[in-house]
Amino acid sequence: MKYLLPVIALAPGFAAPLAAQESEPPAEIEATAAVTLPDNSVKQSNRLSANVGTGLVTEYISRGVLFAKEVSLQPQITVTLDLPSLEGGAITGANVFVGSWSSIKLGPVPSGSGGRLTRFYETDLYAGAAIELADRWAVSGTYYRYESLGNSFAGYNDFEVIVSFDDTGMWDNNISPAFSLSPSLRLVQEAGRPGRKDALYIQPSLTPSFDTRLGNTKINLAFPIVVGLSDEYYDGTDGGKKTFGFFRTGMIVSGKPAPRAAPGLTLSGGFDLWVPNSEVKSGLDQYDVVGRIGLDWSL
């Protein structure tokens, strides 16, 4: 099963001013390693492993809603414990994990109730478990606690389930030996959302990807295709709720800059193209391009 690294990349971004929803808690961590199984390409000497990374985004958008129009630094760390005692039969991998993810504004920000911590828009803690079935299916469950050191929003909880399928190697090798579509379904149930009904978020996605070479370096190209749906999350511009929130695509280029000296190190870059539902209060125009660049290390 492939390990889906957090991918943070940089490119020009275009966005409208942040909508009134800025004071509300963010909807999700857009890229996290917590929900996948460890990188099998990096040999571990014991059951405990860690993944650390940091990235830069030109804007912080989550679930099709703009939360920070400033350039933001987004570090993360995940510690994973493998559970080989659970493996057997259909279960080909299992682990538990804990981690943290943050979004820190780098551009000029007005002083607010957070004082010197105003730049620390979001700090999240999460814990969960994941299993791999028949070397193809991955199922994870994760609890998230969202907090803001800068008092940008009141804290709340999320409970997330992700089911994904690794179709690598199932396609004609004339396309690429590493070609895959990586279908995935993400379900997130909010709990204790301040001032509003808890929403159920549904995100089906495909991520067509393949390996190629740039000189002597192998790189991976990925093109995410994501749809955001919800029962209560998206406020309509004319009142009420909207089911369809956004469509997102883009391109991500990733590779290992030092495969022999540091096989767990991954460098990535690219962009996201967000196309929001025009009937939703999202803070976005007809479209928004967000650039990403990042560095990730599996230890």
Question: Which terms summarize this structure?
Answer:
17 strands, 0% helix, 299 residues, single chain, two-stranded antiparallel sheet, Porin, mainly beta
Would you kindly provide a written description of the structure presented here, covering whatever features stand out?
By secondary structure, this protein is mainly β. It has one domain (20-298): Porin (Beta Barrel). The chain is 0% helix and 51% strand. It has no helices and 17 strands. The chain has strands spanning 48-57, 60-62, 65-68, 72-73, 76-82, 91-105, 120-133, 137-147, 156-165, 184-191, 200-206, 209-214, 217-222, 225-235, 241-255, 265-276, 288-298. The strands form 2 sheets. It has a 15-stranded antiparallel beta sheet that branches. It has a two-stranded antiparallel sheet with strand order 2-3. A hairpin with a 2-residue loop joins strand 12 (209-214) and strand 13 (217-222). The protein is globular.
The CATH homologous superfamily is called monomeric porin ompg
Q: How many distinct folded domains?
A: 1
| Helix-strand topology string | EEEEEEEEEEEEEEEEE
Coarse structural class:
mainly beta
End-to-end distance = 18 Å
Q: In the CATH scheme, what's the topology name?
A: Porin
DSSP strand content:
over 45%
Number of strands: 17
Spans of at least 5 consecutive residues whose pLDDT stays below 50 are: 1-29, 31-38
CATH C-level category = Mainly Beta
What shape does the CA trace take?
Answer: globular
What about the largest sheet? 15 strands, antiparallel
Helix share of residues?
under 10%
Total count of helical runs of at least 4 residues: 0
Average pLDDT number: 85
Q: How many whole angstroms does the radius of gyration measure?
A: 19 Å
**CATH 2nd-level architecture:** Beta Barrel
